[in-house]
Amino acid sequence: MSLSPASGIGRFYAKSAKIIRFVRLGCTNRPFYHIVVMERRKNQHQPVIEQVGSYDPLPNDHNERLVALNTERIRFWLGKGAHLSTPAAELLGIAGLLPIHPRTYMTAWRNRRTAAESEAKAETTA
Amino acid sequence: MLRASCQLLTQTALPAGKSGGSGFALEFVRWRRKPRWLPVAKSKMFRVPERKKQSEEERTELMRLHNQYKTQLRSVRQFLREEVVRHEETSTADHIVLTPEQEEAEFLKCVDINATWNAKIAKERDQRLAKEREDKVAYVQERLEARQLREEERREQANLRVLREIESSKTFITRENLDAAIETALANPVDHNFAIDLAGNLYRGRNSSQVPDSTPSSNQHALSN
Q1: Which segment of the chain is annotated as a signal peptide (chain A) (predicted)?
Q2: A20: which chain B residues are within 8 Å (Cβ-Cβ)?
Q3: What is the layout of strands, in order, in the sheet containing A30-39?
Q4: CATH code reported for the domain at A18-125
């Protein structure tokens, strides 16, 4: 799998469906994502139209998960009618560019519930 | 890949367990499933997979949130679409339409700028060329002087050598004084042979029994021949 340049060498039809989504790079047990614009029907490891950001999902030493976004180009492509994959929409929602995605809320309340449950279980056993 | 791995697994590595402990270094984890053409196992034939339970309130809440999100995203998209259109209209990146007069004026302006640039560069170039010429002249002059010096030195060396030769030619044997030289040589034979003993005494001559040059020793006669 070769790395295509961020400026993009992917060929595309003018009226085909584009999508902003992640491309999983990195390796086994070490995910790393490029946020790219490409034709929706294409495989994620095909050449991209344009790279608009990167996302490192594993927290670093300072407990940060690093995201880089080219918001200007994301706005451009969204204005051009590009679709959004769900993880990309969640990330952009958290970044503040778009409204918060419902899945973010859902994950949050499920996490809260499991935390409360485990806490209750710990209290009953102790 | 799937089929090959499955066949390999059925032949060799299937009894070895899920992924570890196979006879050799084959480990299939991701593609461990049976071939497409095998039927559903008898034990699984009537198994009904359990549906994930979703509470009613969560479902309604998610529905509400999704409706809200979609509405908001639609308006954001509308805004961005308008922004792109606006940007395309206002930007002069690739669609400037000019009248012929404007084009002419633009062209003249470009020519002017080009002429000033050319004049400036020509001035710089002339300066540079003049300097290069000067440097070259100086270099050639220097080389010429050096060559002259070298020649003089060489001539002096040659003169010295000629004088030396003339000086030594006075003792040369020529056709005229050949007989005299032969007679002199025959009259004065020179024997360059010598022997030397362990003490360092020198015995000159091939057949002579002369006393050695340095201090005499007891075995001089024995070694003299």
Answers
A1: none
A2: none
A3: A67-69, A50-55, A30-39, A18-27, A83-84
A4: 3.30.1320.10
A75 and chain B: CB distance < 8 Å anywhere?
Answer: yes
| Residue A74 CB contacts under 8 Å (≥ 6 apart), including other chains | A20, A52, A53, A92, A97
Structure confidence at residue A10 (pLDDT):
87
Domain ranges (residues) in chain B = 1-42, 59-89, 190-224
Q: Is the CB of residue B157 less than 8 Å away from at least one CB of chain A? A: no
pLDDT at B164 over 70: yes
Whether residues B76 and A101 touch (CB distance < 8 A) is answered with: no
Instruction: Report pLDDT for B223.
Output: 45
Interchain CB contact of B84 with A (< 8 Å): yes
pTM of the model: 0.52
The more confidently predicted of residues A86 and B97 is A86
Would you tell me which residues 14-73 of chain A have a C-beta closer than 8 angstroms to some C-beta of chain B? none
Q: What is d(CA B201, CA B213) in angstroms, rounded to the nearest whole number?
A: 7
Q: Which residue of A has its CA nearest to B72?
A: A99
Stretch 20-59 of chain B: residues touching chain A, C-beta under 8 Å: 58
Residue B19: DSSP 8-state: S
Contact assignment for A79 to B81 by CB distance below 8 Å = yes
Residue B134 or residue B51, greater confidence: B134
pLDDT tens digits for range B98-123? 788 999 999 999 999 999 999 999 99
ipTM: 0.90
